[in-house]
Amino acid sequence: MVKRFFIIQLIILVGFSVQLFGQSLSVHDLTVNFKRNPMGTTQNPRFSWKLKSDLRNTVQESYSISVSTNPEFTHENLVWETGKVNSSQSVLIPYTGKELKSGEKYFWRVEVWDNHGNKSGWSKELAWWQTGRLDKSEWKAKWIQGVDVVDSINGPALYFRKKFESRGKIVSATLYATSHGMYDPFMNGQRIGDSYFAPGWTSYSKRLQYQVYDVTELIKAGENVIGASVASGWFRTRISNHRELWGKKLSLYMQLEVKYENGKTEYICTDDSWKVTDKGPIRFSELYDGEFYDATMENTGWLSPAYDEAHWKKVETLNISVQNLISTEIEPVREIETISPKRVFQTPKGEWVVDFGQNMVGWVELSISGKTGTTIQIWHGEILDKDGNFYNGNLRTAKQKNTYILKGKGKEVFHPSFTFQGFRYIKVEGFPDRPKQENFKGIVLHSDLSVTGSFECSNPLLNQLYQNILWTQKGNFLEVPTDCPQRDERLGWTGDAQLFLKTAMFNMNVYSFFSKWLKDLAVDQSPEGKIPPVVPNILENFGGSSAGWADAAMIIPWHLYLHYGDTLILKNQYESMKAYVDFLLDNSTGHLRNKSHHFGDWLFYSPVNDRSGKAAVTEKDLLGQSFFAHSTQLLVNAAKTLNKIDDVEYYSIELNKIKAAFMQEFVSPNGRLTSNTQTAYSLALAFDLFPENMRDKAVERLIKNINDYQGHITTGIVGTSYISNVLTRYGKTDIAYKMLLKETNPGWLYQVKKGATTIWERWDGIQEDGSFQTASMNSFNHYALGSIGNWIYNTIAGIQRDADAPGGRNMIIHPIPGGGITSAKGIYDSPYGEIVSQWEIIDSAFVLKVSVPANSTAVVYLPSEEAGKIAEKGNIKTKSKEMKILSSAEGYTKILIGSGDYTFEINNDTD
Length: 911
Ligand code: BGC
What we know:
This protein is of the alpha+beta class. 53% of the residues are buried. The model is unreliable at 1-8 and 14-22 (pLDDT under 50).
């Protein structure tokens, strides 16, 4: 079905194309598995590129790829040549060349031909990938741990070193490394690479990532030193109220492979010849509590060969299996941007506070001079209290405090290594003088995912809301999708992740980020099919099927597929998906889900000291049954996509029974739900639980409920993700705008008006009188309520995916102006390139500019049924060679366009 749709579209547009020669065609943005020049790949490489063309309706007709072990692509180095392949596919073409070798750098290039008769010539970008270790037997190193050192959860970081000699001219040197704990690698005095928090966070006992670094430039002729510092990290740090979850001792695993010109390879591996010390500057390092760095204890020169290591201790080797070692699929955490303080001031309490103007995640880089032993303490907080004092009561037991002791030798620059903080404000103590702006830099850290979306419109409050959503994603997409980045939690909550996913995919390229996380989800799934509420799972005894949380196992793969057009994600997750639905079926009676634990519509609106019965409580069992149906539907969808006919048939029958059980248990004969809440109606409508003849009535009830709250949204995090799209789907976008634009509590703009720079956990984290909500549950950096971002892209900007042509092959442009907004612009960089939808209302005219990337199409909704009133450099009726009018109904003319830039003018006033 999907394929047929493409082909019809492409044939139509190819048919329209004008043969013009000599126009430019080029390829750019070459990626392997959606990543640019990835290191250490062990998955089969899949190639994607984008086309650039000056002409409209450009479609790739054929491509040719070649892969070589040298950048010159000399004949004898070629490992794959496709020759000219007649295909329009430009996304995720699998490698089928010669067998790949471990640790090898492969260069690739592509050229394409289009329907206008143009040829791009070979791509200009130097594109490559380097393989990781393709066979477990190639691991030669041994795990090492310190002997006779303080190695405890609250103890210091350990430092490991090894001196070695290089013998001859080096062609390449590659380091493979991982640890139990978090490590920083070093060579000859320099930190290796630019990533942080290696080896990342996974379900370590089952999946432990190793990193691959090119260290060719760091090795010297003769004597060298390789080393690492290792601290607790997620491996054994306190997580929630658990400690030492994956082990008690820190250990290191490194394998350095040096290839010489004479063809020999030498391995420098962790073994019992390495040395270790606990006498280094990092005296303590913990994720929630921060780092204590004593610069007077720095081991100056420990990374140079001449260093005297006599006082260092021995290490012992461990007999640990390498079976759980996996290559790193995800983009690493890096320093992404730097923020300068907006002001440094003294609070009414007399404390020195620095305001960075933005709630952010990362750390503060301190630059300072002073006497030896001067101790600087930095506390991090998200907000000032209503008197203007520093506040960190909402961090619960997390201290978020970094301490630095000066060595006293000129200017010193410090940032921590194995911890991060969520903050807008810092409180500083111990400064020799008055702290100044130039003493501090805010360093933003997160998984290095490229930004793919942007939005702005004529309403500044909405623009701020959009920025807040983006910043909340930045703050919580750090190795795993977390609920929050600051208090003693920071967990991969499944519910929050799935609810925000659709927004996240427009904002950033999250393909690898989620495909990696889903693998952790699958390995942490219980044998009966239960899905833990947090991934990596740190909870021993988990309920395992909380509605809207556990369903992440279904919702995330399905929407990743729609967004990126990749069926592999469904193939990889299919067993996990099926096991989860089977678990639900096994735990139901007459297709009605048995009672079990549900978090419910978390943090729904409830007036302060609610005695009015106005709290928007949705029955948990109703939520349970709704998601039971939805997840089963997604399994049917996945089975259809993967052509698993038997499963389609079996689960479709089950789905009907689940829906029937929903109707019987939760819906009156007249279509009233047992919970009269916005969330209940939104889910039942979003998941098609009502039969068609009951839907309009349900929409009316939903709207009545919204009106009963004077147009306010009252949903918790679950309903929030669905309500606005449901309203738009049923033609009630005006109500969705009304809700969105409310500036009083509960509502998104209430937060904005209260000065939010990120999305809050609760609608009213700061209450109307300026006091805070209960400190035990009041994060100011929680993305779940930011799921409105998806509606902002879909409806205000009007950029939507097309489920029939997933992955951006065809996009739908359907902006629906409203709420007094007079202009808006959205950009989404799909796997084909940037799609732009920009509109403006000028007097009675509606002007819509659309850009469609080459080799893709768009269906555009133009707001007039009369094609005669729509112009695009002349009336569109006369443009049948360039665009196709698909229909004129319900207030719109729907057209199909190919790639290119278009400006449509619709003037409904003209006759
Ligand atoms: C988290 C939520 C999460 C919830 C489970 C909270 O502590 O911060 O975002 O989904 O627990 O209900």
